[in-house]
Amino acid sequence: MLKPLSRLGLTIVFLAVSALGATSAEPALPDIFSSGMVLQRDMPIPVWGSAGDSTEVTVKLGETSATATAAGGKWRVELPSRPASAEALRLTVSFSSGPDIVIDDVLVGEVWLCAGQSNMAQTINKKAPRALADMPQVRQFSRQRGKKSKLPPTWKPAVGEGISDMSVTAVYFAENLHRELDVPVGLILTAVSGTPIEEWTPRATLETDAATKARIAEAAKRETRQQVNAMRKQLRENPGQEGDPELQNLALLTRPGRLYAQHIAPTVPYGIRGVIWYQGEANSKVPANAQLYGKYLALLVAGLREAYGQPELPFYAVQLPSIEDQLKEGQKPRVYEMVREQQRRTVQATPHAGLAVSLDVNEGLHPRSKNIMGDRLAKLALAQTYHRPGEGAFSGPLLTGVTFQDGRAVCTFEHAEGGLELKDTGESLFELAGPDGVFHPATAKVEGDTLVVESPAVSEAAGVRYAFRPFMPRVSLYGASGLPAAPFVHPSMD
User: Whole-model pTM?
Assistant: First the structure.
């Protein structure tokens, strides 16, 4: 029986089939169905594609099969769930008119969508930050870019030279899962350098927010586009100038949902276990846009959960690390600290989500040591999604509350099992503000399971923050597990 789809789901399947040239009604499958693929275990297995109307389609995987009749040039079946298996299976799709499509070397295991911008897209090449052994059961599906962009998308195993084509962040994430779960791991890589979150979020989801819908409509106006283009030209010619904040926000909404439609929608409703997300750099250029990041991140999570039909779809994000202190000529400072705060607050407010804190990775815009991010994402997934026993906390401490009393800020945290620890406190990264909102250097100390922050310059505390700056030569607050605490500011900067 065909599974009913939501309005967004129907749109997604249409986009996926259209991306294949399905309007020709030729028998075809989305490109994600190809040799070497990994299917999600313990979930029904949807298979879909295109064919002429009234064409009977039979899909067989191992000893199971399902049949559908194409209508409107499209068809879909759902195979029963299967346990994990490293034994190569064959998927055969037979049409009442036209040749069969045969896909070999199909494994069943854990599948994750790996999305974001350049730091998720960056491949290992020949500079693995930590040695990797061949992992034939770890496979990545991605669309090649640049000179290889005309090649068909493929599933590639993490073997030999193939490891060099793997996403650095994603492959170390997969290495941990494969080792701990002992099942095949599939990575669906959908990442494009220099792209904002507004383009990765389904447009239909963005427009559920009234203010965003109005901005999208404004950004689509011819006059607005002309103003945005003129601003971009002016900023290119005068790098030191500041653009209009409102136009900067509208500039990121001129192509709402574009990358979602191009890169993620064609994979829906392929079975996945969850999402890992490494993005935010493109939204850190303008403070006014950075302040909206939390809203867009919440919309992104909601949109992906609706699209894949999983209201509790796990979502694990990398919090932006430190960025270089020395700017190149004409380069403007980025407000990483504002995006980090939005990431922390949104993830904490989102069920079945987690934050891989990476403030201690001080390697600039494109950190080489992304194995750290992959390892920490895996800690989150193994603990929260797979409920694997482990030692210590799986996340760095995250602020949960602040009480201002006697001129001090008393801060409490989650994920601080075993307590808090202060290290390298030579230059304080803590600041305290009074009712006037002006922050002053402060000192911190651990008292029981709380952190107390105070400053001789503040007699009546009303605000507190930690590591609230783009560049961090070091960090000082950790959990007993050794994981760094996320930076914070309280009350909210909104």
Answer: 0.92
Burial state string for 31-42 with b = 16 or more CB within 10 A and e = fewer than 16: bbbbebbbbbbe
Q: Whats the size of the chain, residue-wise? A: 494
- 320-343 b/e with 16+ CB inside 10 Å = b? bbbbeeeeeeeeeebbbbbbbbbb
Q: What is the pLDDT of residue 152?
A: 73
What is the pLDDT, as a whole number, of residue 10? 45
Place of tokens 């009749």: 69
pLDDT of res. 4: 47
- Cis peptide bond prior to 269, omega within 30° of 0: yes
pLDDT tens by residue, 3-49: 444 545 544 444 444 444 434 478 999 999 999 999 999 999 999 99
Instruction: For residue 392, name the pLDDT band (cuts at 50, 70, 90).
Output: low
167 Cβ neighbours under 8 A, 6+ residues apart? 114, 120, 121, 122, 123, 140, 142, 187, 189, 191
365: left (phi over 0), alpha (psi -120 to 50) or beta: alpha
Look up residue 356 and give its amino acid.
A
Torsions phi, psi for 12 (to 5 deg): -65, -45
Least confident of 30-44, 45-59, 473-487: 473-487
